[in-house]
Each structure stands twice: as C-alpha cells, then as structure tokens.
Request: fold
Amino acid sequence: MIKTLLPLVVALLVIGINLLQQSRTKPEVTPTNLIPGATVVKRVIDGDTIELTDGTTVRYLGMDTPETVDPLKPVQCFGKEAKAKNAELVLNQEVKLVADVENADRYGRLLRYVYVGDTFVNLELVKQGYAYSYPYPPNVSREAEFRAAQAEARVANRGLWAGCTEKDIGLHLRTQK
Reply:
C-alpha cells in the first residue's frame, strides 16, 4: 500500500511547490485581471490615489506619498509635488489596472498597480522621488522593485529625498523592512 501511495504523495508535493512558486511571481497585465473597458482618470486625489470616470477610487499598491488631504494631518513635505506629478502622469489618461492579492482596502478603494501605456506609474513615482516604497502585505509581489527604486532615488537625492526628512513625510511612523 505504501508503494502505491508514494507516487501520489510525490506528485502532490510537486504540484504544491509549483503553485507556491507561481503565487510568488509578479502579476501580469492580462485581460483576466484588468477592469473591463476603457478606464479613464477623471480626478487625482493625491500622489497615490485617483478617481476614475465611473466614480471608482483606486489606491496605488507598493508605494505611498506624503499626505495632502488627510483632515487630521497637515500637508506633508513634498505632498503637493507628488500630487502634481501623479496628475501629470495619469489625469484624463486611459489606465490599465492590475490587481495583486487583495481587491480593495478597508475604505473600499481598489488596490492596483497602474499603467499608462508602457509606464508603470506606481514605480515611476518612486523612481523619481515623488513616493517611497511602502509594502502592505499580502500585496507585495513587486516589493523588490519598489525598494530598489527607492534606494536609487534616495542616493541620487531625487524629489522628496532632496529636502524632506523621514519625519517630515511621516515615514518614521510606518514600518519599513
């Protein structure tokens, strides 16, 4: 009986390992994880949040920007610049939205990686120093890219890294691995 069960157990282990490896790969832009139809940005709320023409609010994954609209906080260092750069990249543009693990946050906003053409907007904001890496498990499939982009922007003193302290942007309050 053990001889007949052993191949089955080995096969199940191989399948399990393959599924685990697939779950750790980057999400691809495919029709199954895009919002159907043309999706146009009608309003930029801040550096990491947009509103679509259908009224849907989208929160960018993998990064964060200094606050500009939180009623409990003052506008943070480089927040206005981050919002302006986000608007430059996405306002009135058709975007592709790619999910990671979770669909929405506790506020009902879609959680997405955002693309305009070939530009990966979330990552571009980090590369240029308008945002910083902010992993929020379980949505961490692109974490390494964001951390590398942040390190490069920080060393080059781009954007917020040129004139803001971590305290100025509230980064000291967040957990950074």
The longest helix spans residues 2-23.
